[in-house]
Amino acid sequence: MKLRLFAWPVFLLAYTVFAALPRPYNVRMDAVNTRYIMKWDWNHSMANHNITFTAQFTFSHKQSDERSYTGMCIGITEERCDFSRELAYMGSYILRVRAEGRGQMSDWYRLEFVPDEHADLGPPSHVAFDPGDTMLTVSFREPMTEQNTPMRSVLDMFFSLQYWEKHSPSKKQEKVFDSTEGTLFPLKPWTEYCLQVNAFSKLYNKTSPYTQQQCVRTLGYSPLWKVLLALLGCVALMTTVPVYRCHKKRKSLVSKHTFPSSILHNTQDTISLLLLPQEESCVATVVVAVQVEQTSQGQQQQVKGQGDVEAEQDSGSSSIQRGQGSSSQDSGIYSGEDSGKKSAGSTTTSQPKETH
Known about the structure:
Residues 297-356 are annotated as: Disordered. GO terms for molecular function: cytokine receptor activity. Residues 1-19 form the signal peptide. This protein is of the alpha+beta class. Helix content is 39%, strand content 27%. Strands 3, 4, 6, 7 and 8 form a 5-stranded antiparallel sheet that branches. Helix 6 packs antiparallel against helix 7. It is elongated, with a radius of gyration of 54 Å. The relative contact order is 0.07.
């Protein structure tokens, strides 16, 4: 009986240990400037009911005193807790978090956090430019606290500005300022420069990331060589387009027209005309076209002349036949053969007229 009474508390203790919730893991701080957010993970497959979390903090020198802990987030379902409004930048703290559900609680996960050592420094913002002829004035906003006050209220701060010509990113130059506005001088006029700025603290050994690269062009007149290059480009464009169009028309004329045999036999002269330089290509095309037209007219005149000769010959033959017919009529002698010849003569006489 006594053994049974003794075994019961042991069983309850073993059951409680076995049924305890696992504590959160991968606990970390997302800390930038004076924003301090604790984040963690928890395996929800370990419980078949809702799980909540409680996060607390205390000063490092009081971590052994359970009564010194202050609850920051109690019974939350999110896996994060914001400590920004309670922790001072120069303090040293112990943060802890645990899981809770249905009367069960996990062990605490403790994390030491010292803001001035562990918090990152954020970059400046709102970078603006005021370009001049050979200078560039840059202004920006320094990193700010969660209370929207400058970070220089809690630590010393300087600013490093890198700048370079856009086409020469490997040749970066750097200037350091102790205020949120600075002037870069001397610079090249009418030249595009790219810039980025960051903040750093020598005392706390902190350096922020650089801002996003931004580019701006200085004022002034463009260099003479750029002006000349632009003019040469315009001249080349104005010269190339007409020459190209003329060359295209020449090719179109050569491909669409059939040259007479008199020109095709003289191959050497024709090729020499077509292979003239571009400046004379239009003139060559006109010469070839004129030769083609003159040759065509000559052939037409030649054909016309041959038609006239044939017409005259046929007309003479008809006259002779008509004369013979008249003689036969006067003598009073007619025959069928003569009648047939007269009909044939009339038919032959009408054909050249139609052709002509």
